[in-house]
Amino acid sequence: MCTKCTEKCKSRRNQGFTLLEMLVVIMIMGFLLAMIAPKLLGVFQDAEDTICDSNIKESKKYVSAFETQYSKLPDKMMVPAYYDDTAGTWHGPTEENVIADGNEVFTSAILERIRLMPHVLNVDEVDEIVNDLGIREVVVLNNSDDADGPAGLWGGAPANDASQFCLIDLTAAPAGMTWPMIGGGDNVGDGTGWANHADWNAVGEDIADPKWAYRLILGIGPDSELMHRIIAAEGQCPSFERAAADDTMWGWYVVVLPRLQETVDSFSGSGVHEDITCWADSSDATSQKKRFDLTYVDGEYKRAAFDIFCPEGHRYPEVVEAWGIETIH
């Protein structure tokens, strides 16, 4: 090969890629990424779901172990309700922007599945929680700008260095606390303010688990006795980081308390429905219907009747995604 040709070839090699060639490569890489990314995202979400299912199973074991060892349910679990010490008012997790930093408590998805309503505890309900369930202290959310929380209300004090959490002694708080209740609630606390979730009045609406109706919930937060005595790590769902990105602060697993006898007694005769007929949310037309008695309380095994779901409203095993409400009695 002549010297002139050799120098010409070297010159081409030194020029590198042209702009057109680079654009073609970038387009091909973008196309491949667009094809692969959804599959990778699905893999990550499947992994999260698997971890979450395992966490729910383990949490049930931990709560059961705690109950067996201490003959009570754990203290210092979190009430997912917010107290505004400045205004002196309670807000439930169904309300938007209840925390001073603008975050919502729960995602809208979980609220659609568990249908929370504010319920003002009466004296007898607090007494049942303390004496029958063994829960003497709870942690409540409070204005993050107020380090004392509802201190003037029940002698509350910051539960830890994070001022958003405030410790409440239930033995010194006979009534007036607002807790979230699934499916309905008495916003007065004397049996006269009972209301069901608006969607419950429409045939064909759904709920995650009808057995959860008229039951209070608590979260397994960082201050819980369960964490300090049984579990070493904080009980957060692996999807919490995604939830936090959506301005949602709640990432903890939730304990559904047993339905209180005093709750049933307070709504009996108040026009609140006492049982419902539901059908499994399935494409199978032959799916069996079930009737759920909402007044049933098993006093002998009351503490053992707890249940657990994740911050997105799922439980394990998740037999069906939701139950459709067909008839209200």
What distinguishing features does this structure have?
single chain, 329 residues, alpha+beta, four-stranded antiparallel β-sheet
Plain-language structure description:
This protein has 329 residues and is an alpha+beta fold. It has one domain (72-328). 31% of the residues lie in helices and 21% in strands.
CA distance, first residue to last residue: 97 Å
Structural class: alpha+beta
* Number of DSSP-assigned strands: 16
Q: Encode the helix/strand succession as letters.
A: HHEEHEHEHEEEEEEEHHEHEEEE
Number of helices: 8
Please describe the biggest sheet, giving its number of strands, its sense, and whether it closes into a barrel: 5 strands, mixed
What percent of residues are in strands?
A: 15-25%
Whole-number total of structural domains: 1
Helix content: 25-40%
The average pLDDT value, as a whole number, equals: 74
User: In order across it, which strands form the biggest sheet?
Assistant: 2-1-4-6-5
| Shape label | globular
Radius of gyration: 26 Å
Low-confidence stretches: 146-155
